Amino acid sequence: MYTDSHCHITCDDLYERIDEVLQNMKDVSRAMIMCTSEEEFLRALPLKEKDPKFKIAWGWFPEDAKDITEEHFHKLEQAISNHQIDCVGEIGLDYHWDTSFIEEQKRIFIRQIQMANKSHLPISIHMRDATKDCLDILRTYAQTKIIFHCFSGSVETMKECLKMNSFISLGGPVTFKNAKKAKQVAIACPLDRLLSETDCPYMCPEPYRGRQNEPMYVQYVEKKICELKQLDEDIVCSQIQNNFDSLF
């Protein structure tokens, strides 16, 4: 059985065929539904109620920071207070496309970390072209468990992340031929600090690269980790599942 620690199955692209996506997940024993809007969160609630394999994460994405108001924070706080979410995320910093509102991103990021600290919820981190600022903020403010989602950094950066109370989550890129850093991280990261994910509908792993991704393809991420670590699949899958369970 496989673990998908980060899947956007309630986004529009996948939710329009949600019954098929769920049917295809027969070999997935754990899944974190990532929600970046209230609509996605409301779609996720009945899925979790029907199937205990699901956990829910909700948070305000860094690229949306300019549009986040107190009302957005109030809705997230209500979900936390009602014990409807298991993780705050994905949250973080993204300087890849637009650096015109960095301070707003930092403010939104810190505020959500503090909400997670207060409620003892783990946080799922989006860190793109903003490693130094992101790690500095986490070192200063984070008092809870951290998941570095779809980790794309170097082994050296991974080691800095592991000094915090964190897990390294690898997705489809670890299967890509030219993804040298991801493979190096998979080999170097202790197995008890690793997670697997799809980040679906994006970055479908080989041998299905280019297709719309979904949780059933997480098995190819875990199989690649087994190959790189030269470990039996049962050992890797069991430990990744235990790592996931230890967060909640």
UniProtKB/TrEMBL annotation:
GO molecular function: DNA nuclease activity; hydrolase activity, acting on ester bonds; metal ion binding
A GO cellular component annotation in the UniProt record: cytosol
Coiled-coil region(s): none
UniProt keyword Cell division present: no
Lineage, highest ranks first: Bacteria, Bacillati, Bacillota, Erysipelotrichia, Erysipelotrichales
Positions with a binding annotation for a divalent metal cation 1: H6, H8, E90, D199
Name of the protein in question: TatD family deoxyribonuclease
Classification via InterPro entries: Metal_Hydrolase, TatD-like, TatD/YcfH-like
Keyword flag Metal-binding: yes
Organism name: Absicoccus porci
